[in-house]
């Protein structure tokens, strides 16, 4: 029998497979135990109304019975199913947290919709079948039980469709500090620059770098210190550098600079903030840093080969700003990998953003490589229809040797040639200019 399906007019490519999956679940294609079921094509027959475009939300579908069509349309998780699941849960794993000496509270939350206080209280009263014997304490409970309800795809809430509503109930083991991001949000930061890293992203990078007490995190493009602030929050020692002396030394005055950002949150001050060029790092062999270094868009380096060596007069040293040139993506990545390979301890982490081109809604995975490092994580942030940036996390797995230097140079040359071809095709412009080195 033919039935009219009226889909919500979004994510239409998901709709037909969803209906066919549910139809299979509810027996539309026959007995799953029969040999015929294994060879039979489990695809429904669809038909568009006359003169309708394929992107129309209206579709006719041929289903074997009204019961199947009703089950498909009404597919949802119920509190009856939750009650059955809780009652069947093993007593030895459930009863210790329901004892008379325990102190508990129940938190109700939802995803994809807002629940009123009255609805939350109704959900809690509906859990009366659970044999809680302890007392309620909303401020300092021993056990916090969560009841979480997700919305179904019948609600136009702007979220991706969910095949069915789900209800989760469980005991909280641990949770992130939800006040962390609001506390460190940029709009309340004392000293900001035009490229200050978003607080949430900075904490993600610090976590990827495994910032912790006893570890040193170095940012060669420190700017206003957003990443180091996040690393210091987790107890790591920090150090930064920037090519612009005005950023690391002056800021906007004695009470509005990089140091004041650490003072604002009561964090340990950086070991040092240096005026340094990442293309000409000042480090001597033997310094062992553990942490992240970042790749900055529109970076600059000292201008070499155009302006010859010169001596700055003593009376002008304090405010001297040397000539600088564009710092290409290829050269920046090469310098980052080389610096990290030389200086990081074994197991140390290099974390940086890398721009990529999106083609056919997918991201190419031709990322930079180095013999000393293993790529362990890639996290994409979509910036637009054509471009994304991917946060790359690499772990040092091999000691730096002269032999590996040669292998790294070969890998870099391949990466450089591919990147230049990318530029020639018009895929990446502005701050990532071609380099000469």
What would you say about this model in short?
The strands form 5 sheets. A 4-stranded mixed beta sheet has the order 5-4-6-7. A 4-stranded antiparallel beta sheet has the order 14-13-16-15, covered by helices on one side.
Give average pLDDT, whole number.
77
Estimated share of beta-strand residues: 15-25%
Tertiary shape? extended
Classify the helix fraction into a percent range. Answer: 25-40%
Strand order of the largest sheet: 5-4-6-7
What characterizes the major β-sheet? 4 strands, mixed
Which value, in Å, is the CA radius of gyration? 29 Å
- The count of strands amounts to 16
Distance between the termini: 71 Å
Quickly count the helices.
13
* Weakly predicted, low-confidence segments: 286-290, 428-437
User: H/E element string?
Assistant: EHHEEHHHEHEEEHHEHEHHEEEHEEEEH
Structural class: alpha/beta
Descriptive account of the structure:
With 437 residues, the chain is an alpha/beta fold. It contains 13 helices and 16 strands. A four-stranded mixed β-sheet has the order 5-4-6-7. The radius of gyration is 29 Å and the shape is extended.
Secondary structure: elements and pairs:
Blueprint: E1 2-6, H1 12-25, H2 35-39, E2 45-47, E3 58-62, H3 66-73, H4 79-88, H5 91-94, E4 103-111, H6 117-125, E5 135-136, E6 143-150, E7 167-171, H7 180-184, H8 199-208, E8 216-219, H9 226-233, E9 237-242, H10 245-250, H11 258-264, E10 272-275, E11 300-302, E12 324-326, H12 329-343, E13 349-359, E14 362-363, E15 373-382, E16 387-396, H13 402-424
Parallel strand pairs: 4-5, 4-6, 8-9, 9-10
Antiparallel strand pairs: 1-3, 2-3, 6-7, 11-12, 13-14, 13-16, 15-16
Helix pairs in contact: 8-9, 12-13
